[in-house]
Amino acid sequence: MALLEVTGLRVRLPRRGGWTSVVDGIDLAVDAGEVLGVAGESGSGKTMSALALLGLLPHGARTEGSARFAGRELVGMGEQQLRDVRGKEIAMVFQDPATALHPMLPVRTLLTEHARHHLGISKQDAGKRALELLEQVRIPDPARTLHAYPHELSGGMRQRVAIAAALACGPKLLLADEPTTALDVTVQAGILRLLDRLRRETGLAVIVITHDLGVISALADRVVVMRGGVVVEDGRTSEVLTSPTHEYTRSLLEALPPAHRGSAS
Amino acid sequence: MSELELRGVEVTYRRDGRAVRAVDGVDLSVAPGEVVGLVGESGCGKSSLARAAVGLLAPSAGEVLLDGHAVAPLRRRARPAAQRRLQLVFQDPYSSLNPRRRVGRQLSDAVRLATGTTAGSARVAELLELVGLDPAMAQRYPHELSGGQRQRIAVARALAAEPVQLVADEPISALDASAQAQVADLFVTLARKLGIGVLFISHDLAIVREIADRIAVMYLGRVVEIGPTAQVWDRPRHPYTAALTAAVPRADGAGTLPQDLPGDVPDPAAPPSGCHFHPRCPLAIDDCSTRDPRLLDLTPDHAAACILLEDEPAVPGR
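YS: structure for the whole thing
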């Protein structure tokens, strides 16, 4: 059985006295050590699906369907239980590292606070672990970076800190929403390699949400293509990107410059 | 004529009492009808260069010429009329448009500012058609439009001044993937159709490769390689250009991880000695930390700044 198995997930938001569906019955599954790519343009429901899994939807939103994670049902789970899953077993990395990190807390606190809460470890142990995490995400001079504040770091560094914070409790599943979109290609390459290493070495399952089919091609084993809240195509990345069956997937690939498609270079 | 020319442009900021050189002696020219792509990582000075090129910032050394006349940096007085023909398109069309004015009103404002005459709806419609939009858009507010449509409006507003040169600073990075290629293509269309020179600044090498006639690669305030697009992309001569092209992930389904270039762009306040790139360069030799490479002409239109190229015999007219 898959680590996460989502069936018929629907998300509705209140709108002008009625409801509007932003995710309209999607199915997806991801195994330990597997990377699932979720592709689509903005407004396709990719981010809303991820937020629904963690109970982070905007106020008033309704979630239906089923999301079984390691034998438990996430949809309709109580806030108290969900809080134990969130950050500890399922962690999330957001697009913009400038707003995802608390600006007034040093890196050390960002990396230790939730770990101490979830794992119940001492301040010293958490500090040691924070140092290891920074080394793991290849931050140069980790001892000094522990005392830095987010504004003192570059965008690439901040995103690496955000990933380190997400990994602090040793999650089984990482939801990464456009994790490299705000970064330069060189830094992006480093982060993609890091995620790939983590899934191979620690069996981390990753759901990477991105509009960038190049990122999906590099990292994901399987891909689901979303449009208007539904999955229009899914399959192995190598097959979907080389012989797409759905018109929309084809149009996404055709919108890319040939250099991105890789065919002409 | 109508050429935009940068000669030895330097931009210096003061930080904590120290001078930080964001742009360190850049020579660059954009001919009419030509699209020049300027690429580099964040912090390399691309945006400072864009601002100096349109006169929003005063260069601390060097000069910017439009049609052979110096571009005067913006001060309290209005820009000289001749300089209106040099226009800037900003990165984020969500903040560069007025949210409370209809699109048509914003365009006619721009026409009035540029020409001193009131724009008829015919001119507004013409501007909208130039950027590939339905003239009915004139009645809309920016929030009713998609990112790609908004950026087209921002371009139309720049076109109202009948520019001969456009400087576009990351004009597609705030847009959806599907809109990016289309808006990038719009700049090519404008260059070809109206003979406008375009300096297109982007960190997206693949898009720049698609639309630019020439590519300039910038690292820590300096142009390290410049040349015709096909040459720079297919046969990069500077190790930094090679690293940038290798880092672009390709959507070919092959599952190949892009090549990593470790490290970040160094702090321009304390640039490395010798070649600025040597601490990150996979090919660096001892000399690189002491010798400062000059831009070396490899062919009449392709130049790169790397001391490893200095020992090579010149390849005539590759």
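YS: worth flagging: Chain B has a mean pLDDT of 90.
IM: good catch. Also Chain B touches chain A through 40 residues (CB under 8 Å).
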